[in-house]
Amino acid sequence: MNHQRANTLRDAFQVCNVEPLEGADMERYYVDLSAVRKTSAIDSVSTILDFQEPAEFSTILFTGHQGCGKSTELKRIQKQWEEQYRVIYLEVNEETDINDARYIDLYLIVIKQVEFELFRFQTPQVTKDHAINETENTERIIDRLEPPEKQERIELLQRLLMEYKPTGHQATGENLRNCSNILHQLGIAYISKVEPIKARKYLEEAEKIANEFQDSTFYAEVLNTLGDSYGQERQFDTAIAYYQKSLSISQQLQNPRGEIAALFKLGSAYLNLRQFTQATTFYQQCLEIEQQIGDRYSQASIYHNLGIVAQELREFEEARRNYQQALAIKIEFGDRYSQAVTYHQLGIVAQNLREFEEARRNYQQALAICIEYGDRYNQAATYHQLGYVAQDLREFEEARRNYQQALAICIEYGDRYNQAKIYHQLGNVAQNLREFEEARRNYQQALAIDIEFGDRYSQASTYGQLGTLAEAEENYAEARVHLHTALEIYVEYKDEYRGAIAREALERLPE
User: Fold this and answer.
1) Looking at 112-121, 207-216, 229-238, 412-421, which range is the least confident one?
2) Residues 6-25: pLDDT tens digits?
3) Does the pLDDT at position 168 exceed 60?
4) Please, are residues 506 and 483 in contact by the beta-carbon 8 Å criterion?
5) Cβ contacts of 204 within 8 Å, gap of 6 or more
């Protein structure tokens, strides 16, 4: 509020503000107009509240043109009665579009605000502080939570957000910093639920606050998480832009840990794009910085991902060496939970080398750790691979049971993208059992998901299987179309190994 007195009509117009008075402005600027306008409506509110019995309810409607003082009078009533009542003041236009509001929207807004006020009223400050501290390491543990627990975490974070930014108020100072942290944690939580669009709603607000505060370290962290939200939608070019921006900030700050975080995410984005040279470059840069600062523990994740790169290039012995190095570091530091994912990858290497019993032992070790730590979501990938081993051993019913278990978990957690590869393998099982219609349904389901997520490379293997299925049904024209599509994709992605398989399948088709 401008405290300078206006001396001209122009000045009066410039400083005129029709926003409701509150706080110190109420004492300074409020003018009692009871002598020249009726105040019976305002006075009657106090009368109603004074005589109202517990559990009795009243609904009172104030009307008037903009700037006539409705909200200011309501603020005065609030101040007068807040010692005897728990007064809840809310502004509907901040919660919904009043031009498109229905009565049920108003009910929900009231319920939300009442629930929040109960949280504020009943929760001691020490409990709120503990809740904030509990969320600080959310990124490290949220993926291990069951869906109901994740939702509980989100609801707690939303309550805390309302604590620091109540409806109708602007957060400032330390409250605004707390808001930005909570917004970031909400973004991470929604990413863990594979809801990237909801995640961005909070992350973009956190980004704006971090930028305003010029908190560059936190700003870089938020940019990384925004990149993760786009990566989850396989929009890797956009993700890379965020990671690059985060990396640049950390380099300017000479923050090696920030550099490592951004470089690792850049490596993973390029790995997903199957641009293995770029991925390796970023991972090696990570490794060099970690070795310089003496961070041996974090090197495990780099060796693990370098193993994935080698595996994708079918350099299986190199992949195994990297995984074993990662595993040794995890064992050295007692990180049993993280060992699961490396045992899983060692299983894939053994399976590719047709060491099926070794593969099964590694998968079972990974599965046991996930079960031990209550990580149901990551069990899906291992059940999938156990199904793959059973299929390689022509134990088709065992393979189907494992795939169906993996699929059930993905559906439970809303992970639609990873369902594609499971439908693909279920199609393969059905094809081996000569259940051709069931096979086709599963392949088409897999293909639809890969197209939905823009995963062109994964489409190739399903087109290849649809081609071999058509060949088995002696529909050679259809087989040729599907196999040719698969070959085109493999050539596009420079996958010579799988391209050669598709080419051989095409060549054996009769004219």
Assistant:
1) 112-121
2) 778 777 777 676 677 766 67
3) no
4) yes
5) 226
d(CA 378, CA 370): 7
258-264-270-276 Cα dihedral, nearest 10 degrees: 140
DSSP assignments along 44-104, one per residue? HHHHHHHHPPTT----------TTSSHHHHHHHHHHHHTTTS------GGGTS-GGG--HH
Only one residue has tokens 């058509």, namely 470
This prediction's pTM: 0.69
Q: What is the DSSP letter of 143?
A: G
How many angstroms separate the CA atoms of 110 and 107, rounded? 5
Helix (H) / strand (E) containing 414: none
- The length of the chain is 511
Cα-based angle 427, 432, 433 (whole degrees, multiple of 5): 95
Where would I find the H helices in 166-298? 173-192, 196-213, 216-232, 236-252, 256-272, 276-292
For all residues of the chain together, what is the average pLDDT?
A: 85
Determine the Cα–Cα distance for residues 427 and 438; give it in Å rounded to an integer: 7
CA distances to 204, 291, 340, 381 from 366, in Å: 36, 28, 4, 10
Contact 360, 351 (CB under 8 A): no
Average of per-residue pLDDT across 307-335:
96
- Sign of the Cα torsion 398, 402, 403, 405 reads positive
